[in-house]
Amino acid sequence: MVPVTALGIVLAAGAGRRFGGPKALARDAGGVPWVHLACRTLHDGGCAEVVVVLGADADLARALVPEGARPVVAADWASGVAASLRTGLTAAAETRADVAVVTLVDLPGLRADAVRRVLAAAPDARTARGVLARAAYDGAPGHPVLLGRAHWAAVARSVAGDTGAGPYLRAHDAAVIDCTDVGGGRDVDEARTAT
């Protein structure tokens, strides 16, 4: 078996209007930046590298990106999550990664166990580039999402506005990996639910 090289992508570009500000600047109750939590979770889950896609208040957010993660800026971030995903996949294409593991910055409860479980859908680099998988929690689709390299260009072409990879994943019968027991799939849209 040939080991899979995984790259993590944290989508953190949005303005967070319902939240009251960019979620890339948010911190947990202990003061740890969410962007740091997301990077650590991806790394601990098996991603050799992590790219963080920034947009709103990118200069402030860049200071919160942990050492070892690579910040990139989605110039058209205000047009929606699709711009962030395209930017992340473009950055991924500059690497030798076989797969990309995509998550959102507003999932501070996401655990490395979920990342490992989704990554297990691509056990061998010889076949990993064609893999598509996503986590599910109580039957609802969630993150992380696993995109084999062979799908990156098509996913980037398929997304628009605030619609991410979901339609592409459904159209291509992506594997659904139950992660209910490891939790952490709930996104935080309002500041009062952030702790």
TrEMBL record:
Instruction: State the Gene3D superfamilies in the record.
Output: Spore Coat Polysaccharide Biosynthesis Protein SpsA, Chain A (3.90.550.10)
Q: Which UniProt keywords apply?
A: Nucleotidyltransferase, Transferase
Does the keyword DNA-binding belong to this entry?
no
Task: List the top taxonomic levels of the source.
Answer: Bacteria, Bacillati, Actinomycetota, Actinomycetes, Micrococcales
Which molecular-function annotation in GO is an example for this chain? nucleotidyltransferase activity
What is this protein identified as? Answer: Molybdenum cofactor cytidylyltransferase
CDD domains, sorted: GT_2_like_f
Q: Which Pfam families match?
A: NTP_transf_3
Source species of the chain = Promicromonospora thailandica
Q: Where is the MobA-like NTP transferase domain?
A: 8-173
